[in-house]
Design a protein that fits this description.
The protein is built from eight helices and seven strands, in the order ααβαβαβαβαβαβαβ. The protein is an alpha/beta fold. It has a single domain, classed as 3-Layer(aba) Sandwich (Rossmann fold).
Length: 214
């Protein structure tokens, strides 16, 4: 998700994908409010999974392949990353992925109560300087919205390579009794993202936190 540290570039292939493929593989913001709207946009019903800030989309594709009966929505603002995912989806699928080109918080605002089965944020910008902590996506407001839009028993998955941000995430979720911690520092099944690999190469500790909505 950390687009500020992985800007990439719009190659000719990505520009072509952005122009020709975005409509085919994306959802309009006004179709992502309720599970019924999302189902109509996909053309079928199923559990809704949301990947907030998917980077280049490789982990999103893997999630969709592992959950073929689900409807996977990737939310991102980083155009080169979106374009790369569009290229990959057009080449080999899977067909149960759609992209929303919009700020993650705006998507959370619009979602209806108990719409989402699983939501994850992998490696968001940690905003390490204290004066920037208010910019971190994991906040009391974020936690409240997640608890609101997740179905009972739904899953919230957070990952970071910042020890400080990991502690911040734990404290934010511990303050909301609607969530119970299921996994802490035991890596759940998922691909290693490009951002995660950079953290591993730099010797940073990876934190995976999986919570269940009571």
């Amino acid at each position: 998700m950390r687009t500020t540290k992985h800007r990439g570039r719009m190659t000719a292939a990505r520009r072509l994908a952005w122009t020709n493929l975005l409509d085919r593989w994306s959802l309009a913001p006004d179709t992502t409010g309720t599970s019924a709207e999302i189902g109509r946009a996909f053309g079928r019903s199923g559990p809704v999974l949301i990947d907030l800030g998917f980077g280049n989309g490789q982990a999103t594709k893997r999630w969709a392949l592992d959950q073929p009966d689900s409807l996977v929505i990737g939310v991102e603002l980083h155009r080169p990353g979106i374009a790369q995912l569009l290229v990959d989806l057009e080449t080999a699928g899977p067909a149960n992925v759609r992209v929303v080109y919009e700020d993650a918080l705006d998507v959370l605002v619009r979602l209806d109560v108990e719409t989402i089965t699983a939501l994850r944020v992998l490696f968001p910008d940690p905003w390490p300087k204290r004066r920037h902590h208010e910019r971190r996506i994991v906040s009391p407001w974020f936690v409240d919205r997640c608890a609101t839009v997740l179905v009972p028993g739904g899953q919230l998955h957070l990952a970071t390579d910042s020890t400080d941000y990991g502690e911040h995430m734990r404290s934010m979720l511990a303050a909301d009794a609607r969530f119970v911690l299921e996994t802490d520092d035991v890596r759940p099944p998922r691909p290693v993202t490009a951002y995660e690999q950079r953290g591993i190469d730099a010797g940073r500790t990876i934190t995976d936190l999986v919570y269940r909505r009571r």
